[in-house]
Amino acid sequence: MAPLDTYPTTTGGASPSGTARLGSSLHVKGEITGNEDLMIDGTVEGLVQLEDRKLTVGASAKLTADVIAREVVVYGNVKGNLRARDRIEIKKDGSVVGDLTTARIMIEDGAYFKGSIEIDKAGEASDDDKAFSSRTRVSASAD
Q1: Is there a domain that residue 5 lies in?
Q2: pLDDT tens-digit profile of 93-105?
Q3: The CA-based dihedral angle spanning residues 88, 66, 57, 45, taken in that order and rounded to the nearest 10 degrees
Q4: Domain tally, the chain
Q5: Is residue 1 part of a domain?
Q6: Is 60:45 a contact under the CB 8 Å cutoff?
Q7: Domain span holding position 58
Q8: pLDDT digits (tens, 9 = 90+) for 108-124
Q9: Within a domain: residue 2?
Q10: What is the 3-class SS of 89-127, one letter each residue?
Q11: Dihedral sign for Cα atoms in the order 130, 134, 140, 143
């Protein structure tokens, strides 16, 4: 076998599942933007913006940041506002202090949350939902 066969085949700090990872010994101050899923185990202060991607806040992570993503899953600690187009999950040992805006929310027993929740269904509406609601309006106006 060639020596390269012994090294991981992933590049750019991505795990085999295609998720980039910010390790537990890393501290970032500033802005993180990108177009790939991200797992944070370290410390981040600032803004995390992954418009169409998933952010996972690991159990050892500490974020003092506002987050914008498609989906956010919190196992660690977040102080800041979370905005997810699809869903936000706060797992049993997770902690969030800040305001949440999302289409779907799940907060497990044992999780800590302090802030407000705004359910934004507009971000989730599919074509079928729009077709159904317009059929309902037509039907209601015909009566």
Answers
A1: no
A2: 999 999 999 999 9
A3: -170
A4: 1
A5: no
A6: no
A7: 10-142
A8: 999 999 999 999 887 55
A9: no
A10: EECCCCEEECCEEEEEEEECCCCEEECCEEECHHHCCCH
A11: negative
